[in-house]
Amino acid sequence: MELVLEVEDGDELTKAALRRLAADQELPQEERSQAEGAVTEDTAEALAYLVDPFDLVSEVPGVELQQASWSSESIDYDPDSPDWDVDEDDGDQDDEEEGGIG
After folding, report:
1. 80 Cβ contact list (under 8 Å, min separation 6)
2. Domain for residue 4, yes or no?
3. What's the whole-model pTM score?
4. Is 93 part of any domain?
5. Among 20, 40, 44, 69, which is least packed, fewest CB within 10 Å?
6. Domain-located, residue 56
7. Residue ranges, the chain, pLDDT below 70
8. Number of domains in the chain
9. So what's the pLDDT on residue 85?
């Protein structure tokens, strides 16, 4: 599964993550400080703190989350561009073009 999101307001996203951190009474202060720094410096960290992959699929029949990971990059996304093919897997294609196993 791949998910493309557009963050329209990074400041609001960061504020939401900070509110969630402030409400987490079980989080030790040292971890809270580290998490606050991370979500303030990186919008992807703020998003990762707000979105739990398990919650996204836990109610889907026949699906069990085995592993989840995050990566992010800032891009100029244009869904109408021919360069954006939803069915294309860039990683495998790049590996095959470079002679690697895809």
Report:
1. none
2. no
3. 0.65
4. no
5. 69
6. yes
7. 85-102
8. 1
9. 67
